[in-house]
Write a structure and sequence with these properties.
elongated, three-stranded mixed β-sheet, GMP Synthetase, Chain A, domain 3, alpha/beta, three-stranded antiparallel β-sheet
Length: 152
């Protein structure tokens, strides 16, 4: 059976010796072979809001996977996509156990050039969603709400 394997490395240094209130949540994540590393922190109140957290990365991964699949399918269908922007959201209720992201909503704004119909673009977006590896790996409810603009 063919299997893709992905590896990442997460690094943190500091001290929790002064208790939960006082340690720095900032850490770095990297994937072997990739040149960049990503700074992360916690999503709860003790994290620095100017630094990404794992929940945001999960949402980014779902959004990115959707976009990459859509662009792949659009290119194969000869649909000229000239812009794609997604404002994605995720909900994580903290009063349910286990605490987890329960809903992800993707709001891609897709701009195409030429004579592709809005219906065809929407169908490609939904087909891309069915193929998205990240979406297929999550148990959160996933909603796709694309907006399509056609430039002629």
């Amino acid at each position: 059976m063919a299997t893709n394997r992905y590896e990442t490395r997460v690094r943190w240094t500091g001290s929790t010796g002064l208790g939960w209130e006082n340690y720095d949540r900032t850490h770095v994540a990297e994937a072997p072979g990739a040149a960049q590393e990503v700074r992360l922190t916690t999503g709860e109140g003790k994290g620095d809001p100017t630094i990404l957290n794992p929940e945001q990365l999960l949402l980014m991964a779902a959004s990115s996977c959707q976009m990459l699949w859509f662009l792949h399918l659009a290119a194969k269908a000869r649909v000229d996509v000239v812009e794609y922007e997604d404002s994605a959201t995720a909900l994580m209720p903290t009063d349910r156990r286990p605490v987890r992201i329960t809903e992800i909503t993707l709001h891609p704004r897709i701009v195409v050039a030429g004579d592709a119909s809005e219906e065809r673009v929407r169908k490609l977006a939904h087909t891309a969603h069915e193929h998205c590896f990240v979406a297929n790996s999550l148990n959160a409810e996933m909603t796709l709400l694309p907006t399509v603009e056609v430039r002629t």
